[in-house]
Amino acid sequence: MGSIGHVTPQAMHFAQPLALRSGARLSEYTLAYETYGTLNAERSNAVLVCHALNASHHVAGTYAGQARSEGWWDNLIGPGKSLDTDRFFVIGVNNLGSCFGSTGPMHTNPATGRAWGADFPVVTVEDWVDTQARLMDALGIARLAAVIGGSLGGMQALDWALRYPERLRCCIAVATAPNLSAQNIAFNEVARRAIVTDPDFHGGHFYEHGTLPRRGLRVARMIGHITYLSDDAMEEKFGRELKGDAIGYSTQEIEFQIEAYLRHQGDKFSEYFDANTYLLITRVLDYFDPAREHGGDLTRAFAGAKCKFQLVSFTTDWRFSPARSREIVKALLDNRLDVSYAEIEAPHGHDAFLLDDARYHAVLRACFDNVAADSRDAGRAEPRAAPKPARLSSGDRPTYPSGEGQS
Amino acid sequence: MGSIGHVTPQAMHFAQPLALRSGARLSEYTLAYETYGTLNAERSNAVLVCHALNASHHVAGTYAGQARSEGWWDNLIGPGKSLDTDRFFVIGVNNLGSCFGSTGPMHTNPATGRAWGADFPVVTVEDWVDTQARLMDALGIARLAAVIGGSLGGMQALDWALRYPERLRCCIAVATAPNLSAQNIAFNEVARRAIVTDPDFHGGHFYEHGTLPRRGLRVARMIGHITYLSDDAMEEKFGRELKGDAIGYSTQEIEFQIEAYLRHQGDKFSEYFDANTYLLITRVLDYFDPAREHGGDLTRAFAGAKCKFQLVSFTTDWRFSPARSREIVKALLDNRLDVSYAEIEAPHGHDAFLLDDARYHAVLRACFDNVAADSRDAGRAEPRAAPKPARLSSGDRPTYPSGEGQS
To answer: Which of A170, A210, A325, B143 is the most exposed place for a label (fewest CB within 10 A)?
Structure first.
């Protein structure tokens, strides 16, 4: 069991316009992605990994010459790991509107020649999944062995199962929800207001002003971070421990360790994350609600789903609590779908989905063992002439040909 | 059962310096307060009401000529109400550092001739209770029938029991905690950072700059508000209801009703609340921790307490959960103290302590019936020469004489 070693990000350009749920159109766009492992001859062993709010296509492995550059799910993915790159061809993709290489607010709006800024069109989980499907077409993958994601990534996995039912064998949705609760939206909204009302935001066109709305981003990240951790985990890790030897009686200096930790998280985040991306991606979360167009009936929303499902939740996750996963499980069972559900006793809150918990990873290992067995069967049962993948390397921006399928 | 009717705020000036826990001294200060009902001849029927973060001495009744000017606990306090002003002499006091009349950051620092701003000394629950005790001296009240408060107000009630054990018969602490958890401190810290990093804060001296850090205050209040409500209550009240007829696909416009509600709360708050006071009072919350000087042992902290206790918590309060009240109850029982505890099944979260819930108010009514009975007994058993109260009226600022007792 080890690391994949050095990996190289790639980029795929798509020249065909993309119609978004908002009604807006992107005339062209680029997706950054990475792949690990080898696509087998039957093209039946591909696993798509979807990222959550602040992650990227860099899912596993490291970048040459960059210390501490492990991908965000490196503990799960690699040779011999639960998602075994000796068996699977793993694809990480950066979503539209993000700030790690795919087309987003920092890039040039072809209509104006200026950076998009806050004018970048609002995207949705459905838009993301459509672009991911196009990428799979370009890579010659008609059907995925699995789509996996945690949190917002889990919502993308669910959307694959809902809208591309023929194109995946297994949907693995971890620490997710069928939609955000009012409280979830509330936290997102406070974070957005902190960013938007930062005078350095300049209506989202701060790039041109040579500023960054760091204050707003810091506050946004601090709020987010509180919701990622469980009350208990915070209590255990920080409690009421003071930073210094004694209380300093100050409203602005750091008194408690938890304050130092949060400020550090906020500072770090404000240095690398784009404010417009933060606004966009919190909205992607807010809008996801597959039951809405079925009168709020989640069971009906899943009526067309065909794949197997693995749901995982964590007992102390109060952002996306086990109760939210159970809503999904119920809707799947109502449809007589094949679903396995694991509720993991873990102290870490929502963050648990990113951590190396033995029971959690054992569940995913067993799930991928089943996926591998199914994929071998599938490879034998349905050999098919898949489209040839474009050859790609870092820096290349091959133009995506027309004809992508939305089967 | 009705309203007290029109009430008049009063003010008491204290010329004797006050030594604060921080080591700082206030050479003089004024407390705003209100009283309702009549102090009986035995001076045994006085009840002190302590306020929480953003409230004041205006606890019940209305102000003449001001619509919607009900005091913040008017549903509890009045003729025939649970805290019956036909039986009790009720005192509401605005705490030091607040922004509703008592000496605070908006007032002039006698040492500089400028507004205190962020230089106003950091205060604590203990400092507040000391000033409340001086006010009781000035009003000629040697011993209170009860001290009652919710949330931060409950902490003050507990501190009375800890440090002035002879001066109250009953401590009524509602929806409170023996100290803040790391998560509680974390929320306070994010709110503070939002205020302090608002460019209009000007290091706390915004008064001189003719600005108000409204952006920061708005975000602070929005964060606070999320923690006052239960997840369920928010879900029930707002759910995922849209503001308009359809999704507008905007990161900055209001999409969901919960967003409109939060923004409204933030806007309203930023118009009337002082930013420096917000910083100070969140620190008052952070610092309260009576067990700290007893090696973290809450039981030892309460060893000297003598009064009766009524604790109340609410099942859906995740800010100050029932578990936190139970910690206090355990410490009291360990000391063989007389304690009654009610855990009220209420959907409203922390806000429940301000709401008119029949079961909750019935518990307090029963408690005050007992307090009244005890007070009558006490009035008969221990007639004592109490100091004569100063005569006060609105606008008067009688100087507080020396000799206040810290029994």
So the answer is: A210
Report the pLDDT averaged over residues A383-387: 48
Contact A331, A294 (CB under 8 A): no
How close does chain A come to B146, measured CA to CA in Å? Answer: 30
Catalytic residue among B151, B270, B313, B325: B151
The burial of B88, by beta-carbon neighbours within 10 Å (0-12 exposed, 13-18 middle, 19 or more buried), is given as buried
Look up tokens 């009576």; give the residue.
B290
β-strand A83-84 against A89-93: which pairing, if any? unpaired
pTM of the model: 0.92
Q: What is the pLDDT of residues A212-250, one digit of tens each?
A: 999 999 999 999 999 999 999 999 999 999 999 999 999
Q: What number of residues does chain A have? A: 407
Provide CB contacts within 8 A for B29, sequence distance 6+. B13, B14, B18, B96, B102, B103, B131
ipTM for the complex? 0.91
Choose the mutation target among A240, A261, A267, A316 for the interface with B, i.e. most B CBs under 10 Å. Answer: A240
Q: Min CA distance, A215 vs chain B (Å)?
A: 6
Question: Which residues of chain B neighbour A199 with C-beta distances below 8 Å?
Answer: 199
Q: In sequence order, what are the residues at sequence separation of 6 or more whose Cβ sits closer than 8 angstroms to the Cβ of residue B269?
A: B54, B217, B218, B220, B221
Q: Is B317 a catalytic residue?
A: yes
Distances (CA, A) of A228 to A152, A215, A225, A321, A347: 13, 20, 5, 11, 12
CA atoms within 13 A on the CB side of B321: 7
